[in-house]
Amino acid sequence: MEENKKTIDVADCLSILKRYLILFIVLAVVAGGLMAFYQSVSYQPRYRSTASLYLLNKDSGDGTTEGIYNNYVLSNRLLPDCREILTRPSVLKPVADELGYNVSRGMISVSSPSDEEYTCIIDIVVTTDSPQKSYDIAAAVCKYGAIEIPRITEGGQVNIMKAAEIETSPVNSRFSASKILLAAVGVPALVYVFLIILRIFNDRINNTTDAQSQLDLSVLGVIPNLNGDHRKKKYGKKRGYGKYAPYGPYGPYHQNPANRSHE
Q: What is the mean pLDDT of residues 72-92?
C-alpha cells in the first residue's frame, strides 16, 4: 500500500483558519453561551460560616516564663490532634443529633494560620447550601469541640476565640468565567484540529501542488475549464466563456451567431 505523502505546513493551517473563521466564531459564541446557560440552570449557592478556637494547656507549671512557654509549645504540638478531633464522630455525631442535620466531614474545613510557626488557633469553616445551617453547624462544632478536646487530651483548654456568624452572601459565583472561556476556546480548537487531520489524510488531488507531491509528476500547464462558473477565474463567466456567458454553450452568441456582428 502506497503511503500518503501529503504534508501540511503553516500556510495550510492558516488557510484553514481563514476559510472557517466565521464557523469558529459561531462555535465560540454558541459553546460559551451554552456553558453560561448550563451554569445558570445548575447553579446552587453555597454559604459559609467561620469560627475560631484557641487551645491552651491548663497546666501552668511553676508560673515562670519558661513554664508558660513550655505550655504554649505543648499546646501547639497538640494542635494537629485537636483539628482531627473536631472532624471525628465524637464531635460530629452530637452536632447532628442536636441540630437534626445530616452533618458530614466534607462540610467542615479545619485549619490553622499557616504564616505563624507557633500558633494555638484553630479555624473552623463550615460550607452548606443554607446560611442558617452553616451557622448552626459551626457554632455546634465549637461547642462540642470545647468539650471533647479537653476530655481526650486530658489537659487542653479550649476557648472560643471567634464565634460563628451568619453570612448571607454565597461564596460561589453563578457564572465561572474560566469555564465559559474554556468552552468558547476549546470547542473551536477541537474542530480546528479535526479539520487539520482531515486535510492531512485527504488523498484527493485538488491542485497542481498535490499532483506534484503525490504523483511525482511535473506540471507543464493547466487546461482551463470553459464551462466553469467562477467569476474571478481567467476563463470564467466574467471573461465571456462561462456556461451562460456570451460565448458559452448557452450564451447568446453561441445560440445565435448573428449576435456577434453587434460587437
A: 85
User: Residues 94-120: pLDDT tens digits?
Assistant: 999 999 999 999 999 998 886 556 778
In degrees, rounded to 5, the angle at the alpha carbon of residue 106 between the alpha carbons of residues 105 and 112 is 80
Task: Compute the distance between CA of residue 56 and CA of residue 66 in angstroms, rounded to an integer.
Answer: 15
Q: Give pLDDT tens digits for 19-52.
A: 999 999 999 999 999 999 999 999 999 999 999 9
Give the number of other CB atoms < 10 A from CB of residue 174. Answer: 12
132-164: b (≥16 Cβ within 10 Å) or e: ebbbbbbbbbbbbbbebbbeebeebbbeeeeeb
For residue 233, name the pLDDT band (cuts at 50, 70, 90). Answer: very low
Q: Which amino acid is at 36?
A: A
